[in-house]
Amino acid sequence: MNRGIDRTLLFVVALLAAFGALILYSVGQTDLIGGNHGFWLRQMKWLWVLQLLWLLIAVCCAAVVYRTSFRILEWATPWAYGMSLVLLAATLVIGRGHGAALSEKSWLSIGGVGIQPVEIAKLTTILMLARWFAARREPPITLRGLLPPIVLAAVPALLVLRQPDLGSAIVFVGILFGMLFWAAVPLPLLVLLASPVVSLILAWSTTLWSIWMVVLFALLLIWRPFVLEGIVVYLTNSAMGVLAFIVWKGLKVSQQERIISFLDPERYRRGSGYQAVESRVAIGSGGWFGTGLTLGPQKRSGYIPERANDFVFAVVGEELGFIGVLVALGLFVALLFTLVRIARQAGDPFASLVVFGVASVIFTHIFENVGMTISVMPITGIPLPFFSAGGSFLVAMAIGLGMAFRAAEEGRAASYVESRQ
Amino acid sequence: MSAFASWEVARRAAVIQWVIIAAFVVLGGSFFKAQVLDHESYRTRSANTHLRDVSLEPPRGDILDRNNLPIAENMTGYSVRLVATSEDSLRAVLTRLDALIPNDTIDVETVVKRWAAARYQPALVYASGRYNAVAALEEHRAALPGLVIQAEPRRRYPDSNAVAHMVGYVGEVSADDIEKNTFPNAKPAEIVGKQGLELEYDSLLRGRRGLRFVEIDARGRMIRQAPAALSLPPTAGKIVRTTIDLGLQRFIDSMWRADLPDKRGAMVAMTPTGEILAYASFPSFDPNDFIGGIDRATFNELNTDPDKPFYNRVIQAAYPPASPFKLAIAAMALRRGFTMESRMRDGCTGSYHYGNGVWRCWKPEGHGSLTLREAISKSCDVYFYQLGLLLGGDSILAAAREMGFGERAGIDLDGERHGTLLASVKSYVDARGVSTWGNGETLNLAIGQGAHTETLINMVSFYAALAGDGIKRAPHIIKDRPGVVTRDLKLTPDQLAELRAAMVDVVNSGTATGNLASEVGLAQFQVAGKTGSAEVTGQKQLGWFIAFAPADNPRIVVGIAVEEGIHGALVAKYPVRAIVHYLTGKTVKADFNTVTEDLLHTGADSGQAVPRAVTRPPSRRP
Q1: What is the model's pLDDT at position B295?
Q2: Is A270 part of the contact surface with chain B (CB cutoff 8 Å)?
Q3: A182 touching B, CB under 8 A?
């Protein structure tokens, strides 16, 4: 009987963790002079050891969560959610920047160890949303009915945006849409919900935006939501088209540059487009098989920006080539498929939604992070699961995966019961 | 809740699996394009971002004297360059670098300009830094990211001041020169000749730059040198062999500095065929100061010195030719049918009455009646006043022009000036009005005064023609350059011999005799020469002496001009000593690096077998 831990998930996670540690080891192998000062574990050279220590802590956390019933989690969810909001708010007041994101107040120092409350908030938001949906008999079918979950996700997202951490704020959007989908909210509703964002993006081109507005009008006619909602959606879209310029003005110069450099990295080669270009050059120079682990010249000479965190995947691309990239992406797909499978087989809606939420977070992180290294996505500083150095995210991931292991076991137990009936 | 019925969940799971696959296909596709399709271009760019090329300066060709002693050579110097990713970081590093080298100031703006011209290349800070400066930088390398130091040939002039005006110096090519293409193929920051032979024969001496690559990290710090296979070695410049006799050059320099320490002036020695043996202008400067950039204090001191050490008095200063010009007048007279025995109507009484004026001879008590030969040896002004009137102003001007006066001698050095000589009496009258000529100017002209100036090199060149075959040749310093015929004095060998005899009298029983009595070397060689004392407006007399020896078969011609100095008769001993030094063969041979007595030294026409390094005649720049 297949009771016990989910072997597939364990296998995939173990492989990814090993792969990540290996890459982090390589990240420390450079020709750079200096920079190796301070406590040895904080040096780039020994980052992989630090990461392994964090991994140990993460495994312990995962084990604890694995032993915890979903009922306890469900009970604790509102408290945890509230606590995480408090922490996020506190971050705005007493937080500090760190490393490349020095201007972003995203870190809280607890007993000398810096933690990022946003990573905890991602989990608690998932739990809160799961709890909200699991309590409903039917999924919301109107935009108005979607308001509570939107608010639940928007509050932490806005707090994060104030840090300002655009990347993490986007992750909350990913969580929201993922869970709305998994909670069986009708697809047209999701499209309408997403439509203002589409308007905002298309506002750069009047023609494209006009076409979109016509399409949106047609969709509204076909799907026939409530008249008031339809009007609200249409007006919001119109406003977004107009407001885009004002929103643009409201962005910080650094954020504006990031967007421009995403659209045209070469133009900002020495400015904010620098990271995008250098990352792509490193990846492109890897070719089919790469330069070999630890041997990438771009990495060795320090051309890959933030090579231990945001752009760690560029190291994979340069040193292990397209084959290495395919292996990494394949492992990610395997992980996501496994999580979806567990969500599908979960014993109850809460567990299922939680696991799917975890999958959404992981997917958003992977797509955004890997996408930005190859200029498919704009540059936002969010870490890559299993690869980027950093304790908070690793522990948060482990807790999420711990819940997935738990759900897998409970789900199998449930299906066992079901099949016996 | 029916939404979580297993078939409903399975349907959504299927949808989301396709979404995941689509997303990863997009990612994978992007990687495939970058890593497989565009791999080559990215690989090239990867190499370009971390490789920087550093130019390797070629060793400049040596400049050698006629005995293969080095006048200009190379020693090891160090170039200092900086790799910078931004102007701000460059300035920051330069500020730190500047603070480390106390005695040198960096021209930050120049370095920034160089950097801006080629941002991905290391910007040159010093072309050839001094060893201790570079050592100080090396010590603080950690504080100076992007520092690239490499050993490079550094120009050196072993005889420093003694050869300054002849050899010149080198320096970084100016933006102006690059724009005008003064130096073909010169790249920014390349070292080119700035003065003297270095400038004149730069195209031969310079050689071709090489290239080397270094690996640079993202902050612009050099990690290591790229494989040697990637570097292109520089091509050394060609050796330029000169006609200079460095022993004589040194002798003249030390003699001047010992006997005439505060005097301005120049001295030049050549063979009758125009090969320059020594070339010196005083005061001088140390051309080594210019190598690797002269520091501002030294430059200002030299530049504001009232004695103008940068002024090349051999080819740039024009002086009234004075009595040495009397030989030209005498030559004209011989061509017109006068003989060495011709006498003028009036004997010398110490002055000559002409028109409303009284024209004095330098000797107030007078010379009495003289032949031309005696007039030359005594340098009698009254004789030449009358001769000048007989020849006529226009005639003298025309003949002088024909003999190459008022023109450049044509030496192979940049910056030679010509003296001033009227085209005709009419031009003078046109310029100043009819009344002012009044033939008084003709009298002045006849004794080398008035509206007439000459450079030392041109005067000595004229005397070289007198000492030789009556053909005036362009003087030259480079060995393989034949003396180009510029003028024919149109004197018969007999006439030349007679003129030389008169000049022997100058030394033996004329104006120079008294002051040469103590010159021991004179007994060995018969020296011929002509003294002169020029009146220069606003200055004391200028002393001339131009001499050659041996008188019957001259091998060396030496001329001296001393500003505000002393009468020509008093400066006569210096050329004589130089001549004796040269003819007695006290010269330094390169082969042994020791002084050897070589009494059989044949001087100019020794025809030493020197391997020819210069394969084509150097072309003068336009």
Answers
A1: 74
A2: yes
A3: yes
d(CA A402, CA B486): 103
Give, for B147, the enclosing helix (H) or strand (E).
strand B147-156
Using one digit for the tens of pLDDT, what is the confidence trace for B456-486? Answer: 999 999 999 999 999 999 999 998 877 787 8
C-alpha span between B541 and B535 (Å, rounded)? 5
A73–chain B nearest CA distance, Å: 20
Contact A234/B at CB under 8 A: no
* Architecture of the domain spanning B246-282+315-606: 3-Layer(aba) Sandwich (3.40)
Residue in this structure with the two tokens 């890459």, named with its chain if needed: A23
Strand pairing class (B471-473; B51-56): unpaired
- Count of Cβ atoms closer than 10 Å to residue A92 Cβ: 13
Q: How many CB atoms sit inside 10 A of residue B391's CB?
A: 22
Question: SS3 of B60, please?
Answer: coil
Q: What is this model's ipTM? A: 0.91
Rounded to the nearest angstrom, the minimum Cα separation between A200 and chain B is: 22
Q: How far apart are CA A128 and CA A81, in angstroms?
A: 7
Query: Hey, which residues does A55 pair with through a beta bridge?
Result: none
The answer on pLDDT for A99 being more than 60 is: no
As a whole number, mean pLDDT of residues A277-298 equals 88
Q: How many residues does chain A have?
A: 421
User: Do B86 and A283 lie within an 8 Å CB cutoff?
Assistant: no
8 Å CB contact of B1 and A341 = no
Taking only the tens place, the pLDDT of each residue in B241-282 is 999 999 999 999 999 998 888 889 999 999 999 999 999 999
- Distance to chain A for B482, nearest Cα, Å: 58
- Any B CB within 8 A of A190 CB: no
Are A312 and A332 within 8 A, CB to CB? no
At B606 the pLDDT is 34
Best CATH choice for the domain B52-241 from the list 3.40.50.300, 1.10.1200.10, 3.50.50.60, 3.90.1310.10: 3.90.1310.10
How would residue B229 be classed by pLDDT, with cut points 50, 70 and 90?
Answer: low
Give the pLDDT band (50/70/90) at residue B521. Answer: confident
- Pairwise CA distance, residues B85 & A112, whole Å: 36
Residue B597 has what pLDDT?
33
- Residues 6 or more apart from B73 whose CB is under 8 A from it? B62, B63, B155, B156, B158
Closest chain B residue to A335 measured between Cα atoms?
Answer: B20
Name B74's bridge partners.
Answer: B155
Neighbours of A90 (CB within 10 A): 13
- Of the candidates A286, A343, A370, the beta carbon closest to that of B35 is on A286
Interface with B, mutate which of A12, A29, A33, A313 (most B CBs under 10 A)? A33
Q: How far is B287 from chain A (nearest CA, A)?
A: 40
Q: Is 90 exceeded by the pLDDT of residue A109?
A: no
Number of domains in chain A: 1
Query: Given CA atoms B300, B302, B305, B309 in this order, what sign does their dihedral have?
Result: negative
Tokens of A228: 């008031």
Q: Which of A36, A185, A306, A344 to mutate to test the interface with B (most CBs of B within 10 A)?
A: A344
CB distance B495 to B555 below 8 Å? no
Say if A47 falls within a structural domain: no
d(CA B279, CA B249): 7
Q: State how far Cα A343 lies from the chain centre.
A: 18
Separation of CA A275 from chain center: 20
* Local structure of B337: helix, strand or coil: coil
Rg (CA), chain B: 34
- The pTM of this model reads 0.62
Report if residue A142 sits inside a domain. Answer: yes
Structure tokens given for A52: 């392994």
Please indicate whether, in this complex, the C-beta atoms of A287 and B35 are within 8 angstroms of each other. yes
Give CA B562 to chain center in angstroms.
20
Summary mean pLDDT of chain B = 83
